[in-house]
Write a structure and sequence with these properties.
By secondary structure, the protein is mainly beta. It is about 0% helix and about 45% strand. The radius of gyration is 38 Å and the shape is elongated. One of its GO terms (molecular function) is carbohydrate binding.
Length: about 650
């Protein structure tokens, strides 16, 4: 076999190990040293000998406590080829949690050791992340009862005072105090998070929050206790989700019977069903006055129209204009005690002063014109103490009010989709009505605003939910047909942004910054600033494999121009320029063979180099050398072969 001598400039010993990694983290010393979340971290390096024929190499990994000295006890070794990546895991029981260590490596070729590598450091961290520093809420502060069951509130989670940078997010649940709840990602700028959630019940509630670090470990829990107001709730509620007549969701037995050709249609955003009305004869009504249990005695009692009450409905009229049409009303003997609906081009809430053919009435009208073909939430409140009528449109209290000194106590049924005047049915509504509620008290502004909160948007990925690192991910937000939505607030790709909703949807692109699974979150926001509950969707960022380097003449250690570099499998090939550089991109991660050669009067050849290429950039220089004669001397040099 021919002996291939080393170039005179190279020593016949292994090179110092390179590509040092402390359990997958780059070699660092000092305060920036990485933390390893295991007691058996893997130390890794790349070993290499300048002589390609030296294939039996062994790298020794030494470690010792920071402040100590290298010894011959704490050492591991790994044998492999030339060049190759080598690694070893420190055995269990050799490291202490919370302690920092130094490590260093060098390679042995069977005859001589090469030089030492640079020193690396790491800290063993087996301790779970710290718990959140606190939780606050202006919607549900500690102390007396606030809000209501099912009414969303905002809870602000404060990151722990130390270690916040390693917090990926927080998991939370109500009352159970056990993991398995809902996860919310931490904000990039302060490592805290915002939880928007509705308490599940009235009375005492406990929101338990855990920090979750990037390794997937959870902290001890932080518990936030608060009290939720316990209102009596609606006296009657109808959602029209069942076929046929609509049952009272409260359980109070106030069923409404569909009449005059009333049918069902899709609810807002395709959620559930709604009452469909033709504007001519169709309506629905109870068999008598709405009843609810007295909060003190439990006795079923009629809801009085001459006392404080609230009525709400979600309405989607097919047309606007003309006379009064009713979404909800209550029958007196000859006229409606109140009508919540639309008159002319405005939403209205009207109450009659007496049960006569032509009563004096008090009317509150909306600030803006009503819109046809669009779901709108209406609420009318009558306060018998102040005699004030208030109208709410999409949860917003309208600027004008009206007063009614008289009023009367109606004893007839509650009607949906029609009114009564001069003893006959009138004011039939064309379109759809849904989510009708009647209360025997004045519902609060925050609760009425909550009814108008947009539906959660739908997040989709038109081009798929997988994107290459450094690329752009296309994300689409859809308001599910809710035309009240004017924008989407979203976070993803490391930033919080807003985008206008045009036609109920919006499409954006976000940066794919780091590999792995990431999350984009969004809320829908209406013109009044009401925000939907947050929705999350995950996507995957994959790395882009690439390999590059320089072809070097082993006789001169100069870059080689005109060398053909190939990579197999894949059949990739290119010819180097004056700088001797080559680069291949856009192929799957895996094991490949790289080779370089140059023909002509003085051919140069490198043989083969095997390399494992991950989902990331890798650099490998390729040596080439001239042919040798039987005496081991080059048969030619590049200069001899040049023209």
């Amino acid at each position: 076999m021919l002996a291939i001598p080393l170039p005179a400039a190279a020593a016949d010993v292994p090179l110092a190990p390179t590509n040092l990694m402390s359990h997958g983290k780059p070699c660092v010393t000092g305060d920036s040293r990485p933390s390893v979340l295991t007691a058996t971290p893997v130390l890794a390096a790349r070993q290499q000998h300048p002589t390609p024929g030296k294939q039996s190499l062994t790298t020794f990994f030494y470690w010792w406590p920071l402040g100590g000295t290298r010894n011959e006890t704490d050492v591991l070794s790994q044998a492999s080829g030339n060049p190759s990546n080598v690694s070893q895991a420190i055995p269990a029981g050799r490291l202490t949690d919370g302690s920092s260590y130094v490590w260093q490596a060098r390679t042995f070729d069977g005859t001589a050791f090469g030089p030492w590598s640079v020193k690396c450091q790491f800290t063993v961290d087996l301790t779970p992340p710290p718990a959140p520093a606190g939780v606050t809420s202006s919607d549900y502060p500690t102390g007396g009862p606030h809000g209501g069951a099912g009414v969303p509130g905002v809870f602000e989670v404060t990151a722990p005072a130390e270690g916040g940078g390693d917090i990926a997010g927080y998991e939370y649940s109500f009352d159970s105090g056990t993991l398995g709840g809902t996860f919310v990602a931490a904000r990039a700028h302060d490592h805290g998070a915002t939880i928007t959630v509705a308490p599940p019940h009235d009375g005492s509630n406990r929101l338990t929050v855990w920090s979750k670090d990037r390794a997937g470990r959870f902290s001890s829990p932080f518990t936030y206790s608060f009290s939720v107001r316990a209102p009596a709730g609606p006296a009657a509620e109808w959602t029209f989700d069942e076929a046929g007549d609509a049952g009272d969701r409260t359980g109070h037995g106030n069923t409404v019977v569909l009449s005059g050709g009333a049918t069902h249609t899709d609810g807002r955003g395709g959620v559930g069903a709604a009452l469909s009305l033709d504007g001519v004869s169709a309506f629905a009504a109870t068999n008598g006055p709405v009843r609810a249990p007295n909060p003190d005695t439990g006795t079923m009692t009629k809801v009085r129209t001459d006392h404080t009450f609230t009525v709400t409905a979600r309405v989607k009229p097919s047309a606007i204009g003309g006379g009064e049409v009713a979404a909800v009303s209550v029958d007196g003997a000859v006229t409606s005690a109140y009508v919540l609906g639309q008159s002319g081009d405005r939403w209205t809430f009207r109450m009659a002063g007496s049960d006569t053919d032509a009563p004096v009435s008090a009317v509150v009208s909306s600030d803006a014109a009503a819109t046809a073909g669009k779901w709108t939430h209406l609420a009318g409140v009558y306060d018998s103490f102040t005699h004030e009528l208030r109208l709410y449109v999409n949860g917003v209290r309208q600027s004008t009010t009206a007063t009614l000194e008289g009023g009367f106590r109606a004893t007839g049924p509650t009607a949906i989709g029609r009114a009564k005047a001069a003893g006959v049915a009138t004011g039939f509504l064309g379109g759809a009505v849904d989510d009708v509620r009647v209360y025997d008290y004045a519902e609060s502004d925050p609760h009425l605003a909550a009814f108008a909160v947009p539906l959660q948007p739908v997040i989709s990925f038109p081009d798929g939910d997988t994107v290459s690192k450094g690329g752009k991910l296309t994300v689409r937000f859809d308001a599910r047909g809710d035309e009240n939505v004017v924008r989407f607030d979203y976070s993803g790709g490391g930033s919080n942004q807003s985008v206008e909703a045009i036609g109920g949807s919006a499409t954006v692109t976000i940066d794919a910054r780091s590999t792995g699974t990431s999350v984009v979150s969004a809320v829908a926001v209406d013109a009044a600033g009401h925000r939907s509950l947050e929705v999350l969707a995950s996507f995957t960022v994959v790395g882009v494999a690439s390999v590059s380097g320089t072809v070097l003449d082993l006789d001169t250690f100069m870059p080689v121009e005109g060398a053909t570099v190939t990579m197999e499998p894949g059949g990739l090939s290119m010819v180097t320029g004056p700088d001797g550089m080559y680069r291949f991109d856009g192929f799957p991660a895996g094991s490949y063979t790289l080779s370089a050669s140059k023909g002509g009067a003085c051919p140069l050849s490198s043989g083969s180099i095997h390399v494992d290429i991950p989902d990331d950039a890798v650099r490998r220089d390729l040596p080439v050398f001239p042919p040798f004669d039987d005496s081991g001397e080059p048969t030619c040099t590049p200069e001899q072969g040049s023209e």
